[in-house]
Amino acid sequence: MASSSADSANGEIAARPRNRGPPFKFLLPLIYAPVLPLIRIGLRRNPVLRDRLFTAVLAGGFLHGFYLVTDLYDIESK
């Protein structure tokens, strides 16, 4: 811990870049999670479109989760 403060005191650049914005890839489930019930409710009269759209959004959610997990494992392995 003391070496990191000494490095910053000497004017060296930190090894990790600073990210100031929110991590949008982790906030995406807050968008598509409420969309799933809205699809079921809103497309009640068109069951074929409802089921296809629901399946597509659900598959997209699983693919996004798989991407996040593999990305985290990739970072940890380095």
Shape: elongated
- How far apart the termini lie comes to 21 Å
Number of helices: 4
Rg on CA atoms, Å: 21 Å
What's the number of extended β-strand segments?
Answer: 0
> What fraction of the residues are assigned to beta strands by DSSP?
under 5%
Q: Low-confidence spans: pLDDT under 50, at least 5 residues? A: none
The SSE string, one letter per element, is HHHH
Average residue pLDDT: 80
Class by alpha and beta content: mainly alpha
Q: What is the helix content?
A: over 70%
Main β-sheet, in a few words? none
GO cellular component, one term: chloroplast
Keywords: Membrane, Transmembrane, Transmembrane helix
